[in-house]
């Protein structure tokens, strides 16, 4: 019987992890947006102060997907939560329970670590929204995502009075 096996990514998985990240970006119609390198993943995920963790999913021993996550923090709860940055399942593995296994494992990790929440964002056109609904995950309409990136981030930073020149 075919089964999904999950394991934490290690430094030896960096090439595979970056490949999956690039596949996700292509799926999200932004393949040129990935500027991360293997060195970036090594430094920030497997260095002395890791900034993220990743689960790799294998179906019939073939790489089928991944989930990359890190702790966020709730000031109201006074505790960290789990922020899922990316979840991706290769097209050939969709509908085989891989995504469900990744999500249930993430939920279990949050509970094991006494983190009271699992947060993530989903593109408004992504058909996975139905998948998340079927898992009982609620969309939070009252919260709107915002970001400052690129030139907008640099302009905002330039206004900092405490900046060392």
Descriptive key words:
single chain; 165 residues; five-stranded mixed beta sheet; 33% helix
Q: How many whole angstroms does the radius of gyration measure?
A: 17 Å
Order of helices and strands: EHHEEEHEHH
Strand content: 15-25%
**Broad CATH class:** Alpha Beta
Number of strands: 5
Strand count, sense and barrel status of the largest sheet are: 5 strands, mixed
Shape estimate: globular
Please name the CATH architecture: 3-Layer(aba) Sandwich
What is the CATH T-level topology? Aminopeptidase
Going by CATH, the homologous superfamily would be Gcn5-related N-acetyltransferase (GNAT)
- What is the straight-line distance between the termini? 63 Å
- Mean of pLDDT: 92
Q: Helical proportion? A: 25-40%
The residue ranges in which pLDDT falls below 50 over 5 or more consecutive positions are none
Number of helices: 5
Lateral strand order in the biggest sheet? 1-2-3-4-5
| Domain module tally | 1
* Class by alpha and beta content: alpha+beta
Please characterize this protein's 3D structure.
With 165 residues, the chain is of the alpha+beta class. The protein has one domain: Gcn5-related N-acetyltransferase (GNAT) (Aminopeptidase, 3-Layer(aba) Sandwich). It contains five helices and five strands. The protein has a five-stranded mixed β-sheet with strand order 1-2-3-4-5, sandwiched between helices. A hairpin with a 2-residue loop joins β2 and β3. The longest helix has 15 residues, at 98-112. The N and C termini lie far apart (63 Å). The model has no long low-confidence stretch (mean pLDDT 92).
């Amino acid at each position: 019987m075919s089964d999904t096996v999950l394991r934490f990514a290690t430094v030896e998985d960096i090439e595979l992890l970056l490949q999956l990240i690039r596949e996700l970006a292509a799926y999200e119609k932004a393949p040129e947006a990935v500027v991360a390198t293997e060195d970036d993943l090594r430094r920030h995920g497997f260095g002395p102060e890791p900034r993220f963790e990743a689960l790799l999913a294998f179906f019939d021993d073939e790489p089928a997907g991944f989930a990359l996550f890190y702790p966020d923090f709730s000031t109201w709860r006074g505790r960290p939560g789990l922020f899922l940055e990316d979840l991706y399942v290769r097209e050939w593995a969709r509908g085989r329970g891989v995504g469900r296994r990744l999500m249930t494992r993430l939920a279990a990790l949050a509970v094991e670590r006494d983190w009271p929440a699992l947060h993530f964002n989903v593109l408004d056109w992504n058909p996975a929204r139905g998948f998340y609904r079927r898992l009982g995950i609620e969309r939070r309409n009252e919260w709107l995502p915002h970001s400052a990136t690129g030139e907008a981030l640099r302009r905002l930073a330039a206004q900092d009075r405490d900046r060392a020149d």
